[in-house]
């Protein structure tokens, strides 16, 4: 067993993680701003605004979460690709199998 640590990811860029954090903060803080939607009118099918706004806000927040997930996964894939290309360059192997 080797005692040297082999990195599994390359260096991180802060930009994607900052963007993901801001989008997550928007999705968390927006529902906490209750005075924005604490009213009865306008009604939708007799349901007060307070309730239908909360129900419908789930969809944009799910969209934000999907965007955050995509940003983080793409950055992780980019970081893993850096290590794969370095390993392939060190071994001199340029086949598709070595890059997976």
Rg measurement, Å:
22 Å
What's the overall average pLDDT, rounded?
85
- Count of discrete domains: 1
In DSSP terms, counting alpha (H) and pi (I) runs of 4 or more, how many helices? 3
**How would the global form be characterised?**
rod-shaped
Please count the beta strands (DSSP E, at least 2 residues each). Answer: 0
Helix/strand/pairing category: mainly alpha
Secondary-structure element series: HHH
Helix content: 55-70%
The CA-CA distance between the termini, in Å, is: 23 Å
Poorly predicted runs: none
User: How much strand?
Assistant: under 5%
For the largest beta-sheet, the strand count, sense and barrel status come to: none
Summarize the structure.
It is built from three helices and no strands.
Which properties best describe this structure?
100 residues, mainly alpha, 3 helices, 61% helix
How would you explain this protein's 3D organization?
- This protein is mainly alpha-helical and 100 residues long.
- The chain has one domain (15-88).
- The chain is built from 3 helices and no strands.
- The chain has helices spanning 14-32, 49-56, 58-91.
- Helix 1 packs antiparallel against helix 3.
- The longest helix has 34 residues, at 58-91.
- The protein is rod-shaped and about 70 Å long.
- The model has no long low-confidence stretch (mean pLDDT 85).
């Amino acid at each position: 067993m080797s005692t040297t640590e082999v990195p599994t990811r390359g260096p991180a860029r802060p930009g994607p993680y900052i963007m993901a954090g801001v989008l997550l903060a928007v999705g968390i803080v927006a529902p906490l701003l209750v005075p924005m939607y604490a009213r009865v009118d306008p009604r939708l099918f007799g349901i007060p605004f307070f309730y239908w706004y909360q129900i419908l806000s789930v969809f944009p927040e799910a969209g934000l979460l999907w965007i955050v997930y995509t940003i983080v996964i793409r950055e992780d894939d980019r970081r893993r690709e850096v290590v794969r290309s370095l390993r392939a360059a060190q071994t001199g192997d340029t086949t598709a199998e070595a890059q997976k």
